[in-house]
Amino acid sequence: MNANYKEYQLFLKFCYTKDESPFLENLRGYGVLMFFIAAGLFVLNI
Which of 3, 23, 24, 39 could be a cystine partner for 19, CB 3.0 to 4.6 Å? Predict the structure, then answer.
């Protein structure tokens, strides 16, 4: 549980930290976009 919490914090830190690299910015943007698309498909299937 503690290890999972640390991984979750690292994930949040990655998501909400502004990085100097435009590649990481684009990667983060696509990740959010894919998350919303997946959530939308999940809702539509139900």
Answer: 24
